[in-house]
Amino acid sequence: MIDWLYSLPETLILVACALIMAGAILAMPSLVHRLPGLQTSNENNDFVLRMQATLFTMTSLVLAFTLVEAEANFRKADALVSNEASQINRLDRLLNRYGDEQVTELRLNLLEYTKAIVDDEWPAMLRGERSDKVRLAFAPLSRGIFEIEPKPGREATIYAEILRSFDSIAESRDARLNAVSLSLPQPYWQVVLFAVLMLLFITSTMQRSAFRAYVLAAQMAVMGAFIGFVFIMDQPFKGQTAVDAKPLRQAIVLMENRDR
Predict the structure, then answer these.
(1) How is residue 151 annotated by DSSP?
(2) Is the pTM of this model over 0.85?
(3) Would you say residue 147 lies in a domain?
């Protein structure tokens, strides 16, 4: 529902989150102080200051833990794409090393398959779809590899490595497609939202002054920026810093230049 936010510049997302949090802490006290039993006093203010410090620390820890989880998901997705590109390049190298003209067409099929991933499947998988073009390019490659009849000795050894690499490529593609939906579980965001709302509420019960308002607005702006950063990192394949197909494009260049 909010995936369209990833089409915005990431700097804009960070600034917007910071401004929303700063604006909230400036606007909420005028509403909270109207509630029965929430009139401020020196005695209550000391208690609120201690509670606010504790709650801010706890909320910051939750955000830090959430950011670690988001970054781990990002690194996992990036590693999957890099591993897939490495397996494709390795298979092309093995086919080239096989030294038989019957595998020359298979290298072309592998190159076509890789280009189909970059040009057709990558945009499709971001929409939650699979590419028929990639499936069609994979079929002749699979059929051709299993039709190879290696001779005992060197060819048989290389063919065993070819089969292992081919299986790894198929598994890597499935892992990449499954990782498109990789994100923080919804309870993470529910806990963060609840903690932030409680922090804003507790902070809003303080006695107001211009100096305190500016300092609290700056504090909440920092927290808002961190929330925006976690949001940016939450979807590894979306946004400006998303995992992209660069390793696969590099593999294509290596494959095209291998015989030159």
Answers:
(1) P
(2) no
(3) yes
- 215: in domain: yes
The answer to the question of residue 1 being in a domain is no
Give domain status of residue 3, yes or no.
no
Take residue 46 and report the two structure tokens written for it: 């000391």
Q: Which amino acid is at 125?
A: M
For residues 59, 17, 65, 60, the Cα torsion angle rounded to the nearest 10 degrees is -30
- Single-letter amino acid, residue 219: Q
Residue in the block written with tokens 């494709």:
88
Q: How far is 129 from 248, CA to CA, in rounded Å?
A: 19
**Domain span holding position 163:** 8-49+56-257
Nearest to 114 by CA among 99, 96, 133: 133
Cα 163 to Cα 90: distance, rounded to the nearest angstrom: 11
Nearest-CA neighbor of 119 among 133, 136, 135, 129?
Answer: 133
CB neighbours of residue 89 within 10 Å: 22
Q: Both tokens of residue 197?
A: 């709302």
Residue-by-residue DSSP string for 175-196:
HHHHHTT----HHHHHHHHHHH
Q: Which two tokens stand for residue 173?
A: 């593609």
Task: Tell me which residue has tokens 């709302």.
Answer: 197
Question: Can you read off the two tokens belonging to residue 189?
Answer: 């965001």
Residues in the chain: 260
pLDDT tens-digit readout, 32-80: 777 776 666 676 778 888 888 888 888 888 888 888 988 999 999 999 9
How many domains is the chain partitioned into structurally?
1
| 115-168 residue pLDDT tens | 999 999 999 988 888 888 998 999 999 998 888 888 888 888 888 999 999 999
